[in-house]
User: Which sequence fits this backbone?
């Protein structure tokens, strides 16, 4: 027997059935929705939905009447007795239970090399502190694997007064003439983990300071502070090899980071000096992942630099001025290292100070006529440096060379927070942990009053 | 997307190479479907009755892993979600994170109107275009439905920007939706306490909705499943944004949900909401604003699709707009522009000749600084392998030889084409001055270190 009935009829019919206990149901029935040609509008859909849910409830009741256990199903439906609107009757009474799960990334099997900077007396140096970079087995701050070492900040010191944004300069007016005092200040006042001494006066077009004299400045800085130091040249590709060689000699045994070797200069001479006097070397390339592989390969194969002595600087472009390239280049390098590229799995450093080259960080007002007001510049600069550094921290940078004390403070605070306190001591969550956390620390912002 | 090679898309195309789409072949069109630079609807034959099945199949196969949700109507409507990858270099991220800034219903009318105007009028010039804010979030602080609805009405009268209506009280949301539903606002939020009432509102008003389960991914998934079961799929998920102590947990939750979604867990493959304004619960003043921008950076990079902020100070908006542009710029766009010597405006024989690099960002910045200040000049673009001035000088990609070569290969003889025989180096390339003089025999001047200062520089230094 086949009978065609409307849903409303079916519903009515089932209502009757429920009242006739013990009735026997036979045969099939089919439901036909007549398309009136206007399509099924939402009102019709609502009405049909309403009928359908009633039918479901009645069928459930019927199943119950026939002795089937429907306790858990029944609760999903609105009680038939209450007057329900078509809309709310479509909404179940209870949430559908669910468990969220997601795995870890299986292809991140290869750790990033760990590089220690600074040598204490037990290692033949005079540093009181060392800094360990790298060692990750996942992207920064990811739950896949705890991050063994925190991010570190080295503050820039120059061997002569240089031009800098006003917001930066006000912090250093009293020490501009004295690199040793400058170094002391960044460590004791601004919380620098390391100091970078830039020997820029050695550039022939600036002051052409002889390499031997520049090396004296390095000695002074090593005397002034007990943290590990980074020794930077002037960026002149012809003069730097000699300058860095002399500086490396003067700092023998202190395990500094020599900054930097580049494909466009005599990197072999710099590498040889780093190796001879026991330093690590900064391998600097310009936004090009293949060049970075090439230089790292040459440093290892051609110059005999050990893996534990290489830190990379794949170049930092400022927010708004190429950070997108720098970000993706660094993220690609880090992921390549994690999945097993042995020419790229080294810790990374960023010249975050480059952020101060962005006009938004220092210019009094926009040079473009139709621009909205840029507001006071003293607040724009530090957040420019923070944002540039933070983006690269998320991409994979371990070490930041910075200048503004507020930027240093905020970057350290946020990266420590993201890393999680004690993550390095095995306090990180286990693999594949799920279901979220931290609910108690989420403020109720919807009704929050702000002064 | 369920497919990843042009061949798989090609299977469902007409294969007639008719060229109506503007591509030479169906295969070429297929490759653009895969890189998402073209849509199925761009193939005219496919939109016909004959190919309806193919159209539907292909649309389904090409649908992004993360569902797209549209908020607002008309020209200001914003679409969020739509991503297919976890890292931008793998393809690109689609539909930039929508930035909403908040107002509340306890502001007096003048204050409300002025803040909304601030939000809708802010624009930051950037390489030939303006970066702007997207939406207004209206929060209910009064707890009063009428007061909230009135505030929403005032906001609607002031701006066409899309709205987010924020209250956890369904009665309050109902009152506001009566006023605003035609504008397709996003409503915040359905929770474990109010979800039945809010679902009722969504069914009645047909608006997108945020599901909120702070720090509880099981419940968030449960809410999403339940809403989907009654046909509500324009969902945004809020796993909670903890500003400081719980930040690591919040960050982790964003990573987990997005990873699950991209890996094919469709039950939770919806756009994500972050709320950086939670910074204001724990901090105040510049510290809170800075921290808010920090949260914006973190969640723009790691998978926030829409977010709500408080501070509209320029020092907040500038970095926020720029980090979003950084993350959402298509990494497939070329790094370099053509090298050569170009006319900006209508240069005469007395006009200056500036030198810059072929790094696209450098070029566009210099070009817009010059042209927006109505300066006529020649601009020599040197091939530095797409590296900016300072780095190219340091790395040897910008040298006197390269500069000479740029003029020579463009056939531009400075002494012949100008009366002054002078070129102007960027301030950051000052150290090349002597070399360039030797290599070209021209007079070499040092311009400002930032091209934004070219107008002032010309006024004080250029007397030719």
Assistant:
């Amino acid at each position: 027997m086949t009978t065609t009935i409307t849903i409303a009829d079916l519903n009515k019919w089932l209502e009757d059935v429920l009242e006739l206990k013990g009735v026997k149901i036979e045969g099939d029935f089919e439901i036909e929705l007549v398309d009136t040609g206007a399509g099924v509008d939402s009102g019709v859909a609502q009405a049909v939905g309403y009928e359908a849910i009633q039918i479901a409830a009645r069928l459930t009741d019927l199943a119950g009447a026939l002795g089937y256990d429907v306790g858990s199903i029944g609760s999903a439906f609105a009680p038939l007795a209450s007057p329900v609107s078509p809309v709310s009757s479509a909404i179940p009474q209870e949430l559908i239970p669910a468990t969220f799960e997601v795995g870890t990334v299986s292809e991140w099997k290869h750790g990033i090399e760990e590089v220690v900077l600074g040598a204490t007396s037990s290692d033949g140096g005079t540093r009181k502190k060392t800094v360990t970079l790298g060692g990750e087995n996942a992207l920064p701050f990811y739950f896949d694997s705890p991050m063994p070492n925190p991010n570190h900040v080295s503050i820039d010191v120059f061997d002569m007064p240089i031009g800098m944004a006003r917001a930066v300069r006000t912090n250093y007016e009293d020490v501009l003439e004295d690199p040793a005092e400058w170094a002391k200040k960044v460590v004791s006042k601004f919380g620098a983990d390391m100091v970078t001494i830039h020997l820029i006066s050695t550039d022939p077009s600036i002051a052409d300071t002889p390499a031997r004299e520049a090396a004296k400045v390095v000695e002074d800085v090593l005397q002034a502070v007990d943290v590990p130091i980074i020794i930077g040249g002037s960026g002149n590709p012809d003069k730097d090899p000699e300058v860095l060689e002399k500086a490396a000699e003067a700092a023998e045994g202190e395990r500094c980071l020599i900054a930097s070797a580049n494909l466009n200069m005599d990197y072999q001479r710099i590498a040889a000096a780093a190796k001879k006097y026991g330093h690590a070397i900064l391998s600097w390339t310009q936004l090009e992942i293949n060049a970075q592989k090439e230089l790292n390969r040459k440093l290892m194969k051609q110059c005999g630099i050990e893996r534990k002595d290489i830190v990379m600087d794949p170049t930092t472009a400022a927010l708004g001025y190429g950070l997108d390239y720098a970000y993706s280049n660094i993220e690609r390098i880090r992921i390549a290292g994690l999945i097993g590229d042995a020419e790229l799995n080294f810790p990374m450093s960023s010249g975050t100070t480059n952020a101060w080259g962005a006009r938004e960080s220092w210019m009094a007002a926009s040079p473009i006529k139709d621009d909205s007001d840029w507001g006071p510049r003293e607040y724009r600069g530090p957040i420019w440096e923070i944002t540039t550094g933070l983006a690269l921290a998320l991409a994979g940078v371990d070490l930041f060379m910075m200048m503004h004390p507020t930027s240093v403070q905020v970057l350290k605070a946020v990266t420590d927070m993201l890393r999680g306190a004690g993550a390095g001591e095995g306090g990180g969550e286990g693999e594949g942990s799920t279901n979220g956390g931290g609910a108690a620390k989420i403020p109720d912002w919807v009704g929050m009053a702000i002064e | 997307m369920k497919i990843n090679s042009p061949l798989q898309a090609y299977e469902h195309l007409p294969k007639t190479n008719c060229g109506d789409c503007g591509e030479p072949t169906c295969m070429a069109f297929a490759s653009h479907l895969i890189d998402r630079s073209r849509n199925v609807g761009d193939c005219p034959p496919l939109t016909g009755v004959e190919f309806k099945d193919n159209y539907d199949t292909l649309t389904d196969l090409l649908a992004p892993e993360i569902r797209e949700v549209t908020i607002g109507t008309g020209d200001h409507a914003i679409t969020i979600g739509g991503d297919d990858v976890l890292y931008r270099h793998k393809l690109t991220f689609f539909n930039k994170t929508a930035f909403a800034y908040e107002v509340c219903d306890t502001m007096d009318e003048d204050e409300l109107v002025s803040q909304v105007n601030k939000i809708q009028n802010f624009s930051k010039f950037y390489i030939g275009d303006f970066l702007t804010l997207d939406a207004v979030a209206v929060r209910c602080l009064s707890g009063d439905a009428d007061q909230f609805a009135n505030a929403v009405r005032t906001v609607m009268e002031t701006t066409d920007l899309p709205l987010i209506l924020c209250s956890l009280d369904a009665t309050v949301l109902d009152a506001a939706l009566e006023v605003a539903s035609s504008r397709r606002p996003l409503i915040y939020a359905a929770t474990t306490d109010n979800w039945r009432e809010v679902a009722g509102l969504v069914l009645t008003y047909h608006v997108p909705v945020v599901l909120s389960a702070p720090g509880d991914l099981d419940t968030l998934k449960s809410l999403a499943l339940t809403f989907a079961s009654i046909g509500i799929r324009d969902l945004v998920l809020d796993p909670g944004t903890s500003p400081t102590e719980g930040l690591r947990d919040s960050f982790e939750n964003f990573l987990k949900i997005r990873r699950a979604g991209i890996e094919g867990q469709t039950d939770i493959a919806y756009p994500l909401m972050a709320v950086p304004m939670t910074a204001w619960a724990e901090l105040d003043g510049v510290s809170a604003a800075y921290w808010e921008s920090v949260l914006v950076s973190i969640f723009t990079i790691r998978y926030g699709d829409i977010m709500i902020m408080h501070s509209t100070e320029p020092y907040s908006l500038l970095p926020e707009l720029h980090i979003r542009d950084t993350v959402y710029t298509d990494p497939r766009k070329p790094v370099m522009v053509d090298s050569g010597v170009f006319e900006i405006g209508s240069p005469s024989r007395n006009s200056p000749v500036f030198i810059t690099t072929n790094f696209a960002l450098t070029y566009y910045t210099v070009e817009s600084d010059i042209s927006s200040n109505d300066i006529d000049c020649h601009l020599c673009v040197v091939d530095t392998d797409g590296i900016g001035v300072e780095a190219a000088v340091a790395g040897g990609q910008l040298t006197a030889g390269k500069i000479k070569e740029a003029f020579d290969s463009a056939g531009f003889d400075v002494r012949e084409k100008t009366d002054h025989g002078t070129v102007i180096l960027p301030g950051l390339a000052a150290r090349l001055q002597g070399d360039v003089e030797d290599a070209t025999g021209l007079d070499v001047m040092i311009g400002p270190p930032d091209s934004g200062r070219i107008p002032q520089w010309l006024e004080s230094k250029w007397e030719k």
Summary: The mean pLDDT of chain B is 95. The radius of gyration of chain B is 27 Å. Chain B touches chain A through 123 residues (CB under 8 Å).
